[in-house]
Here is the input.
Amino acid sequence: LSNEFSAACLEAAFKGRSAPVKNALLNQSLIAGIGNIYANEALFLSGISPRRKAKTIISGRADRLATAIVTTLRAAIVDGGTSLRDHVQPGGEIGYFVQRLAVYGQAGKPCPSCGLLIKTIIQSGRSSFYCSRCQR
Here is the structure.
């Protein structure tokens, strides 16, 4: 969320990387602070498939993804994070971002944008949720 974070940062971090963009987003040595839930949500918001090669995130895609990451993380902060199961904040509060989840944990449910069923795949041991119509 620093002022230096931008589409250009994403392009530089992903340059030459054949790994899926979802894996690159979770790589804390490339971009710090994005967890699995928020990577899924940012990719959905930007219309990018979690399977797309990271090195193809350039130009307009990089702009959309950078914006989606900031939007997703800021919304999660405002909502106090995402409480799944029994997770609570240090003060005992739960996070309400879970109510905004568009794709994470929604496998088999209709996409909120187009109605096609949300799919799930496993990438590097982590679940990826996506809409095959809305995310390319």
Observations:
- Helices lie at 7-14, 21-26, 36-46, 59-78.
- The beta strands are 119-123, 126-130.
- The two ends are 25 Å apart (CA to CA).
